[in-house]
Write a structure and sequence with these properties.
The complex is a heterodimer of chains A (355) and B (367). Chain A is an all-alpha fold and 355 residues long. Chain A has helices at residues 2-6, 8-14, 17-43, 52-55, 64-76, 84-103, 108-128, 144-171, 175-190, 193-202, 204-207, 216-242, 245-253, 258-288, 300-307, 317-347. Chain A folds into two domains: 2-43, no CATH class; 64-79 and 137-347, MetI-like fold. In chain A, helix 10 (193-202) packs across helix 12. In chain A, 33% of the residues are buried. With 367 residues, chain B is an alpha+beta fold. Helices cover 68% and strands 7% of the residues of chain B. Chain B has a four-stranded antiparallel sheet. A two-stranded antiparallel sheet of chain B has the order 4-5. Chain B has a two-stranded antiparallel sheet with strand order 6-7. In chain B, a hairpin with a 2-residue loop joins strand 2 (150-153) and strand 3 (156-159). In chain B, helix 7 packs across helix 9. The two termini of chain B are 37 Å apart. Classes of the chains: A mainly alpha (355), B alpha+beta (367). Chains A and B meet through helix 2, helix 3, helix 9, helix 10 and helix 11 of A and helix 1, helix 3, helix 4, helix 10 and helix 11 of B.
Chain lengths: 355, 367
């Protein structure tokens, strides 16, 4: 008995009177909630059924048959079935070049150039089609998780240069540049994303020459990119502030030009310091792409919401949204894990002056 | 000298190009408005609105003008924000305490909850609570009864309504007093932390007020409830979604703040003979609060911005009322969006200025 009392696990659960009370409370809470939840998710769940009525046999179980029936829709929207290989190919290209850029020690510049030029063009051609014998797929048919990914990558990629420019602008000693950057950053950070999306929806067409019609997806992409850019600017600014003064002083002493110092010495180190923040922005951005469902695009959230209106599967909101939550959760987990790999990869580089 | 000249040239170039861009857009807007036959101006704010706002805290009638709708929607936004701030703080504190409790089960549960909440979209949570929980409730006649006089059904939560002069006075004085004390509590705070005193005062005051009030419970008469107060499902879902989502972030902020207090402080307090509880209340928490305020400010500002997600479930806040209803009715895109963005910018500016002032008072002098 005494040995049990000394065991770390026992101590962690029943070490003191307060601890014991908390443990018992937690156990009671679990006993109250978990059985019902497990029964709903697994025990009484229906995995195969033709429609909602067939699912109703098990009344207190989830109707996962609904998810199975809609699976492709949730991932590709209404992207034509025969063309879905293009989505896979585009994703594969992005993953390969992205990995190459991040992890190749030599020729990183070439990889980066490919990531910034070849990949966006190739992916746009692949997804939209209309040339090289690829059938055109209008953006109204893009949807599901694929749309979340497209918006995330475009917005993140576009936000990097915007963020870097605004961060340098905010640190500039020239008042016009400085206060202009501050104004832009604070405006975009001060307003909610959803109002910004509405702005893109109703104001962007007014700002462009009469008769120019902008695609609904493009409107969302433009505002999401600028919005993310403002947050990216603050993140990069934090990184810039973290770079020691000695670095730029040394570079100047070596005879480098001010621009060279900033771009070749300060910025790379600043970006390395900013990685955790950038990963946070990426996770937030990915979650926020769900907002486009409110302005008439059919991302995963929008597709789930629309499927719930299907008469054959009515009243299955719990199943639909729980599934969407699981997908978002794992996607965010992948981003976070990838981020920590990245962080470790770059922090492994020995810092000059410290070794 | 050349450096100065270059600086001037670059800045002039920036001003010129920015002006050119603005002029280009302004020209486009003017052409577009002319083509559509719209006159720019805020005169429409005095025109009759003619639509109903289902949930309003200040007086509203279909005959009121658009300008009044902005006020009504603004109050709704602030109301939702206030509720969410209170609940998110309480929930976040609970999660943080669980996480720091050292109890294996509590720590694990808190960690799991925080991870799940932080890694799913806020919109998803709001919509889940609305469509999967509140809209799935039974209809009016089969209401879920909590206690004897609280009813929950698909139309919302029905709670007893309190009235009476004494209730108004006591509850009002308690709320204002606690709020003022929370802000102005100065010297005494070192010996008696306000966090330990004010919540009980609030509870006792409200209880006392409750005893003096006349309670009017909701009762099912025919097809509807008579009496009581109906809390619509939209505000419930919005409050649940936003509070729970933000609470996970607040929990992490609280944890970071408490862990951020230097270990030497605790050790010094122990060596001076302070008990564990007094160390926490007198040494750790006051310093943690100082670290907590900046991140907490941004979380509260996030909450105010997040209430716009109420538009997804038709909660009548500014975005829903203005950017949707008013814009659709009047077609005045620029004026409406300017107002909506302006309101959020002003609220943000005021809130961050207030929090900065508070932060300056609490921040370490001479650092």
């Amino acid at each position: 008995m005494k040995r049990v009392m000394q065991a770390p696990l026992f101590k962690a659960l029943f070490g003191s009177r307060g601890n014991t009370v908390v443990t018992l409370l937690m156990v009671a809470l679990f006993a109250l909630l978990l059985p019902g939840l497990v029964r709903w998710m697994f025990g009484h769940a229906v995995w195969e059924a033709a429609n909602r009525a067939a699912c109703r046999l098990a009344d207190d179980g989830a109707c996962w048959a609904f998810i199975r029936a809609r699976f492709a829709l949730f991932f590709y929207g209404t992207y034509p079935e025969g063309e879905r290989w293009r989505v896979h190919a585009g994703l594969a290209l992005l993953v390969v070049v992205g990995t190459g850029t991040l992890f190749s020690h030599r020729r990183r510049g070439a990889w980066l150039l490919a990531l910034m030029t070849v990949v966006p063009v190739a992916d746009a051609v692949l997804l939209a089609g209309g040339m090289f014998g690829l059938a055109a797929v209008p953006t109204e048919r893009w949807g599901g998780l694929m749309l979340n990914l497209v918006i995330s990558f475009v917005a993140l990629g576009g936000a990097m240069p915007i963020g870097i420019a605004l961060a340098f602008g905010r640190r500039s000693t020239w008042p016009v540049i400085r206060y202009g950057s501050i104004g832009l950053i604070e405006f975009w950070r001060g307003v909610p994303l959803l109002t910004v999306l509405f702005m893109g929806l109703v104001l962007l067409p007014l700002f462009l020459p009469n008769g120019v019609n902008v695609d609904n997806l493009v409107r969302a992409l433009v505002v999401m990119t600028i919005f993310t850019g403002a947050y990216m600017a603050e993140c990069v600014r934090g990184g810039l502030q973290g770079v020691e003064r000695g670095q730029s002083e040394a570079a100047l002493a070596l005879g480098m030009h001010t621009t060279q110092v900033q771009l070749l010495v300060v910025l790379p180190q600043a970006l390395r310091l900013a990685i955790p923040g950038i990963i946070n922005i990426a996770v937030d951005l990915f979650k926020d792409t769900s907002l486009v469902s409110i302005v008439g695009l059919f991302d995963l959230m929008g597709v789930v919401g629309q499927s719930l209106k299907d008469p054959a599967w009515t009243g299955l909101a719990s199943e639909g949204y729980v599934f969407a939550a699981i997908v978002f959760f794992f996607a965010c987990l992948v981003i976070s894990l990838g981020g920590s790999v990245l962080e470790r990869h770059f922090s492994a580089v020995p810092r000059a002056g410290k070794s | 000298m050349t450096g100065k000249g270059r600086a001037l040239a670059w800045q002039a170039a920036a001003v010129v190009s920015a002006t050119a861009v603005v002029l280009y857009f302004a020209n486009n807007v003017a052409t577009n408005l002319a083509v559509r036959g719209i006159q720019f101006g805020f005169g429409f704010l005095w025109a009759k609105a003619g639509f109903d706002i289902p949930f309003h805290l200040v007086e509203w009638d279909v005959n009121f003008p658009y300008g009044r709708a902005l006020w009504v929607a603004g109050v709704n936004t602030l109301f939702a924000s206030a509720i969410c701030i209170v609940f998110a703080s309480a929930l976040g504190l609970t999660l943080a305490l669980m996480r720091l409790s050292g109890n294996l089960l509590a720590v694990g549960t808190s960690r799991a909850l925080i991870e799940v909440i932080r890694n799913t979209p806020q919109l998803l949570q709001i919509v889940f609570f609305y469509f999967a929980v509140l809209q799935a409730l039974p209809p009016m006649r089969q209401s879920v009864t909590i206690g004897t006089s609280v009813f929950l059904n698909v139309r919302g939560l029905y709670v007893p309504a309190a009235s009476g002069e004494l209730w108004d006075w006591i509850s009002g004085i308690t709320l204002v007093g606690v709020l003022v004390a929370a802000v102005l509590w100065k010297r005494m705070g070192m010996l008696v932390p306000r966090l330990l005193v004010l919540p009980p005062v609030l509870i006792v005051g409200l209880l006392a007020a409750g005893f003096t009030a006349q309670w009017e419970p909701p009762a099912l008469k025919g097809f509807n409830f008579v009496g009581g107060v109906r809390i619509p499902p939209e505000i419930l879902a919005l409050a649940l979604g936003v509070s729970i989502y933000t609470s996970a972030f607040i929990a992490e902020n609280v944890r970071a703040a408490i862990l951020g207090v230097h270990k030497g402080q605790t050790e010094a307090a122990f060596s001076l003979g302070l008990t564990k509880g007094r160390t926490m209340a007198l040494v750790v928490l006051p310093q943690a609060l100082r670290l907590l305020i900046p991140p907490l400010t941004s979380q509260y500002l996030n909450i105010i911005k997040s209430t716009t997600l109420g538009a997804a479930i038709a909660y009548p806040e500014i975005l829903q009322i203005f950017a949707r209803t008013v814009l659709n009715q009047s077609g005045r895109a620029i004026e409406v969006m300017t107002l909506v963005l302006g309101v959020f910018l002003v609220v943000n500016l005021i809130a961050s200025a207030g929090m900065n002032a508070w932060n300056r008072r609490l921040a370490l002098q001479g650092r």
